[in-house]
Design a protein that fits this description.
Protein name: Protein kinase domain-containing protein
InterPro entries: AAA_16, Kinase-like_dom_sf, P-loop_NTPase, Prot_kinase_dom, Protein_kinase_ATP_BS
Radius of gyration: 38 Å
GO molecular function: ATP binding; protein serine/threonine kinase activity
CATH topology of one domain: Transferase(Phosphotransferase), domain 1
Keywords: ATP-binding, Kinase, Nucleotide-binding, Transferase
Shape: elongated
CATH architecture of one domain: Orthogonal Bundle
CATH superfamily of one domain: Transferase(Phosphotransferase) domain 1
Largest sheet: 5 strands, antiparallel
Organism: Polyangium fumosum
CATH class of one domain: Mainly Alpha
Helix content: 55-70%
Length: 1281
């Protein structure tokens, strides 16, 4: 028995739906089966795509999307396109028949007429004709496949010699022509081709095997993989695609922009049916010669080959094969010659009244849009163009008109996306644009493409699976942390746009952004982060609905400018009266006096709304009056006139609120195939529905949102619920149904339990593609309908999603809520997670409050004061020295879970407090270390050793640094032995901080960068670690070593990452210290002080933390930079008590050194401003002695600098210079090149003369080259004199 085992990797859901009967055929990319579709109760053709190559994937989707919404007796009916567990499928009508040629020549041997091929664009016909003047046409293009197989390449003589004639006998022409069958089948073929053309599309691959005829003589055209629209083929430069033997001359040059090309292919088929041979095909002919010959000569009359061929059909074949497309026969002539009924030939679209109008007016807006694009290209700078207006003003039509013209004139890379109000696709603003991007990349030569794909491209493919196959070319290990994975994906897209923009202008058009989701907003913000790619972003949205949209609010604009980005605005207001009248006349199809009066009335009543103009004009065309009707009334009146089936279909589509598949409409409306197709065709003809815009034509939607809104508003509450229920029921039968859409439909239909199940499924799917904000939204919706017993578990999932979205404070609150509903053990874990996420996200008050409640439950006290913690740490370290670091190793499963929980809680508190309240953090780490050694679990011991190394290094001094390095080595040995990525990264962090606090800053830079890389590459939940490594260690090390350019380049990236995560800890840590220091380097002292003030305004006011110290230190430096010594002195003394009470100077040697140095410098700065400076000078010298007692090259250098300033003040320049020289050497022994250079500049100031000036010039040039314009003021702030 045949079953789905024939299909590889088939899901259980698919196997339940389809019963495979037999394989119908297989090609390079896909396989086609005859299958029973149990959901429909009919046999279908089921086609599976075997390759996920982007070009094959696009062609496969295009085969369905091109004509899925077109119903015609002579076109194979397409049912569904769906994705199931890594593979795309489509279902279509099963046609039992034979090829066109076998039907009309019944005894003819069946043979392949070859596959379609893709070639680079060949020279134009003009160039081909010019070749007649040469001796021969030669081509170096390799031979691919011919009409009947591979043929050798030959040279066609063009010097007057006669062309080789077609052979009179063909080995496969064994059948006898059945003229009656040919005439009948030709009519069916022509009807099908004409139906395709009426949709504005071209088939481009008509050939005998793509035209089947049933035993009853019914013709069916199939295989729509190469179908393209008239508009896109005329607009875009396309590759040569098709089957060479059946390809028209113009198609061979990539210029098949209208239906005449298909009629040429029909002519080849007719010629072959009459003669048994293919025109222009000689023995030994290459593809290139075949295509060129079509440009240069006409084929012989079929009667020269078969004298008995019917004369009218032979002449018709020659007219169909005319080289000039304008002279070529078409459907009307076929119908005339075959005697088909006149009505078989539909009227040309151009003479139909009520057809879609052309674009009217808007010259000023188009000029502004062109100017914005010119600015982008001319200045090679990113431009954000806002195009907005109220609904119905024609924003989308304006953008479409502008983009079409732009593509035709400037040939940019165009990527388009659109949001739909009720579509729940993750990153929905970008979804269509990324599909287009995948097609673009798939068409590029692999060698060229390799240079475009950036690092992290595989992460981008995680967000957008359509890029999956391309990602293999740039595969790399996937980061386990969801934040890091998303950051890499976002950065990869930004760099990809940078690479593309380096080749051609890139236009990214995103429509209806008022309905964008938060994840799209985050992606767009990352895309525009400095340095932004030089792309032209067209952002269009409804003015009245954009105010609450996160994406629109975060876009650069005239009100919120962004350095390095230009923003422009086009407000789309009412259409000018004369343009509105012209639009109305174009729809009415008349231009007489009556039509002009009617158009004027329409323009008045429409009040400048192009959409209302169209609706009124169509309504009046039907013979009605518009007196007293508003827009909703006009739409309602038009809808009321529809047949019941069409009205129901329109209500279904409107209720869906997003583009939906025709098969879904049919199921929801409970219509038959034919009835559904007729309804869709009528609604398209009436301008009420359309295929989804651009190249994605698989689904239909209301022509305008105003239609959708009017239809939905006209439904009674019960009717609306019924439509939602019908859509939900129909979608449940589809294997590719969107669970978010199902949830929405069942929720609105009043079925909360079914809605909740789909909300949870949709939330999990959103998490898989890193759309965490969407997942959180869906979990919240699911909670609204959850049973009380399920709320706790569901809140845990919501908390996870919020944590992954970087919303730690919200996650903590949800975890606390879950804890109140869960059993004791899971409740304890939930409360711990609440503490951890609050502290790590920088919400100290909430985190500490939760910690104080939690600690007694696990037998751990909370230290009342920093002093108490200081004592606890000292006692713990004495105990640890006696105990040593030995342990009895045990596996995790052999340890009491309560003990493990206590250890992990100490880690969470020690870790979360470590970057804020270092003294209390050290207290919990001491407990963490002792508990871990007692338990014996190796990962936790490695983690504890690494964190203890960090804390020991803070004490500074040779012994502490040596112990820190030893502990880090112990941690690394265990981590490598057990292969735990988090422990390995933390052991590297221990080494990095040992180097940093040992004043080996160059080594610290290398180790900090390695640590960050290890956390990113192999660890999860590492936002706090990344923030701490950047804010406190890497950026400060770069500052000290004098790598100013790297520091200034890295700071914006760090701030952007903090913004994307919404992480208060990271934002504050960056904003209080190194962002202000970077601003000082850039000569922006007022902004530096504002940065720290603003950051502290959102920080807790309880206690004195590292954040307070950082803000105090950087703002005092800024005052010294400004030359305000007295203010700096006063500010320092106002906070000195709080600094000492925090115990930070006693805990961290580097803080002590910085504090003593800062106190001395502020005393000397104030001394320059007062009448009695000596007490301040003595104070500075006293502080220099304190610096001496620290016994390190850094503190020595600071003390020498203070004394040099005192000597200079007292006029002893020589001793001052000598002390500065010694200070410079000490700074360099500490890898503090920035301070050493500023010290040397001070030496130049004291030295004077040409030598001093030369020294100053050299130092200034060094700083200027790195982006620091005022080294004189930096020296005033950092090096006293």
């Amino acid at each position: 028995m045949e079953h789905l085992a024939q299909l590889p990797s088939v899901s259980e859901e698919l196997s339940r739906r389809f019963l495979i009967r037999r394989c119908l055929g297989q090609g390079g990319f896909g396989v086609v089966y005859e299958a029973l579709d149990r959901s429909l109760g009919v046999d279908v053709a089921l086609k599976a795509l075997l390759s996920m190559d982007p070009a094959a994937l696009y062609a496969f989707k295009q085969e369905f999307r091109a004509l899925a919404d077109v119903a015609h007796d002579n076109l194979v009916a397409l049912h569904e396109l769906f994705f199931d567990e890594g593979r795309f499928y489509l279902t279509m009508e099963l046609v039992r028949g034979v090829s066109f040629l076998r039907h009309v020549r019944p005894s003819r041997e069946e043979r392949s007429d070859a596959s379609a091929i893709t070639l680079p664009p060949l020279p134009t016909a003009k160039r081909a004709m010019a070749a007649e003047f040469a001796n021969a046409v030669t081509m170096d293009v390799p031979v691919v496949g011919g009409a009947h197989g591979t043929i050798a390449m030959v040279t066609l003589p063009m010097s007057g010699a006669e062309l080789p004639r077609l052979p009179l006998e063909q080995p496969d022409a064994q059948g006898v022509l059945d003229e009656e069958r040919l005439r009948q089948s030709l009519v069916g073929l022509a009807k099908g081709v004409a139906a395709i053309h009426r949709t504005g599309r071209v088939h481009r691959d008509l050939k005998p095997s793509n035209v089947l005829v049933t035993p009853e003589g019914h013709v069916k055209i199939l295989d729509f993989g190469l179908v393209g629209s008239f508009e896109s083929l005329a607009r875009d430069r396309v590759l040569v695609v098709g089957t060479p033997a059946y390809m028209s001359p113009e198609q061979a040059t990539g210029a098949a922009g209208d239906g005449s090309s298909d009629w040429y292919s029909v002519g080849v088929m007719l010629y072959e049916a009459l003669t048994g041979v293919v025109p222009h095909l000689f023995e030994g002919t290459s593809i290139e010669d075949l295509l060129y010959t079509k440009h240069l000569v006409d084929p012989p009359d079929p009667r020269e080959i078969v004298p008995s061929a019917p004369a009218d059909l032979a002449e018709l074949a020659l007219r169909l094969l005319a080289r000039d497309p304008r002279a070529r026969a078409g459907a009307e002539e076929i119908f005339r010659i075959t005697g088909a009924a006149a009505e078989s030939a539909p009227p040309p679209a151009s003479v139909m009244r009520g057809a879609r109008p052309g674009f009217m007016g808007r010259a000023r807006e188009v000029a502004a849009m062109r100017a914005a694009f010119d600015a982008c290209v001319g200045e090679h700078q990113p431009v954000v163009l806002h195009v907005h207006g109220t609904s119905g003003m024609g924003k989308s039509d304006l953008v479409r008109h502008f983009l079409d013209a732009l593509v035709e004139e400037r040939a940019p890379i165009l990527l388009e996306g659109r949001c739909h109000e009720r579509e729940w696709v993750p990153y929905k603003a970008f979804d269509g644009a990324i599909d287009a991007l995948a097609r673009l990349l798939g068409e590029i030569d692999p060698d060229d493409r390799a240079g475009l794909l950036p690092p992290g491209f595989s992460s981008l493919a995680r967000l957008f699976p359509v890029l999956g196959r391309l990602a293999e070319e740039g595969s790399e290990p996937e980061a386990p942390d969801p934040h890091e994975l998303r950051r890499r994906a976002f950065e990869a897209l930004r760099r990809l746009f940078v690479n593309l923009a380096g080749k051609r202008p890139v236009v990214l058009s995103l429509d209806d952004l008022q309905w964008a989701d938060a994840d799209s907003a985050a992606l767009l913000e990352a895309l525009l982060a400095a340095p932004a790619p030089a792309l032209f972003l067209v952002a269009s949205y409804r003015t009245e609905e954009a105010r609450g949209c996160a994406l629109v609010g975060r876009l650069p604009s005239a009100h919120t400018p962004t350095p390095g980005l230009l923003s422009r605005e086009v407000v789309v207001g009412p259409l000018a009266t004369e343009d509105a009248e012209a639009l109305a006349r174009s729809i009415l199809g008349e231009d007489g006096e009556d039509a002009q009066r009617t158009a004027a009335r329409i323009a008045r009543e429409a009040a400048g709304s192009p959409f209302f103009v169209q609706e009124l004009a169509r309504y009046l065309l039907a013979g009605h009056t518009s007196e007293g009707l508003d827009l909703r009334g006009v739409v309602a009146a038009r809808v009321a006139l529809l047949p019941a089936a069409a009205r129901l279909v329109l209500e279904i589509v409107s209720t869906a609120g997003r583009p939906i598949e025709p098969v879904l409409i049919k199921e929801a409306a409970a219509l038959g195939d034919e009835e559904n197709r007729r309804a869709l065709a009528l609604l398209r003809a009436e301008g009420l529905l359309r295929a989804k815009g651009g190249r994605d034509e698989a689904r239909v939607e209301t022509y305008h949102d105003k239609i959708r809104e009017s239809v939905v508003q006209g439904l009674a509450e019960g009717e609306l619920r019924a439509r939602h229920h019908a859509l939900g029921q129909a979608m449940e039968t589809m294997s590719n149904a969107d669970p978010a859409a199902l949830a929405m439909h069942f929720r609105t239909a009043g079925e909360p339990s079914r809605a909740r199940a789909y909300m949870e499924r949709a939330a999990r799917r959103a998490e898989q593609v890193l759309a965490f904000d969407r997942a959180a939204t869906l979990y919240r919706l699911a909670l609204e309908h959850a049973e009380p017993a399920d709320v706790g578990a569901l809140e845990l999932r919501l908390g996870d999603a919020l944590a992954k979205a970087g919303r730690g404070a919200e996650a903590a609150r949800v975890f606390l809520s879950a804890a109140a509903r869960l059993d004791a053990r899971p409740a304890l874990v939930a409360r711990q997670r609440a503490v951890e996420h609050s502290l790590r996200a920088g919400h100290m008050d909430e985190g500490l409050s939760a910690a104080r409640e939690l600690l007694p439950a696990v037998g751990l006290p909370y230290p009342a004061t920093p002093g108490r913690s200081f004592v606890n740490v000292a006692v713990a370290r004495v105990k640890q020295r006696f105990r040593g670091y030995d342990f009895q190793e045990k596996p995790e499963h052999a340890i009491d879970p309560v003990v493990l929980h206590r250890i992990d809680l100490c880690w969470s508190l020690g870790n979360g407090l470590g970057g804020v309240d270092a003294v209390r953090g050290a207290d919990f780490q001491a407990r963490h270390l002792a508990l871990s050694l007692a338990a014996g679990e190796p990962y936790r011991i490695a983690r504890a050793f690494a964190w203890e190394a960090v804390l020991r290094s803070l004490g500074g001094g040779a012994q502490n640094i040596a112990e820190a390095r030893d502990l880090a080595a112990r941690a690394e040995a265990i981590a490598l032995r057990i292969g735990h990525p988090h422990a390995i990264a933390w052991s590297c962090a221990g080494k990095a901080l040992a180097a940093h606090n040992g004043y080996a800053f160059r080594e610290a830079v290398v180790l900090c960068e390695r640590t960050i890389a290890l956390f990113r590459e192999a660890c999860s939940n590492i936002a706090w670690e990344i923030a701490s490594m950047y804010a406190w260690w890497l950026l400060t090390a770069l500052f000290y070593v004098g790598d100013v350019r790297a520091l200034l380049d890295l700071l914006p990236q760090c701030r952007s990452e903090a913004d994307a995560l919404g992480d208060r800890y990271m934002e504050t840590a960056l904003s209080v210290l190194m962002t202000p220091m970077g601003l000082l380097l850039e000569d922006r002292p007022e902004e530096a002080m504002a940065s720290s003030r603003h950051a502290l305004s959102r920080w807790t006011t309880r206690g004195y933390h590292t954040m307070h110290w950082g803000a105090f230190y950087s703002s005092t430096q800024a005052l010294l930079y400004l030359g305000e010594g007295s203010r700096a002195y006063a500010a320092l003394h106002a906070q000195s008590g709080a600094v000492h009470a925090s115990m930070m100077p006693r805990t961290a040697k580097s803080i002590r050194i910085r504090l003593f140095d800062l106190q001395a410098r502020t005393a000397l700065a104030r001394a320059r401003e007062v009448a009695r400076p000596e007490p301040l000078v003595r104070e500075a010298l006293s502080l220099a002695e304190r610096l001496d007692s620290e016994r390190s090259p850094w503190s020595d250098a600071c003390a020498l600098g203070v004394r040099a300033a005192v000597f200079a003040r007292r006029g002893d320049v020589d001793r001052a210079l000598a002390y500065l020289a010694r200070a410079r050497s000490s700074f360099r022994r500490s890898d503090m090149e920035l301070y050493a250079r500023l010290t040397e500049r001070r030496m130049g100031e004291l030295e004077g003369g040409e030598a001093g000036r030369a020294r100053i010039d050299d130092i200034d040039a060094w700083f200027h080259a790195q982006g620091a314009p005022r080294p004189d003021l930096l020296a005033r702030a950092l090096i006293p004199l």
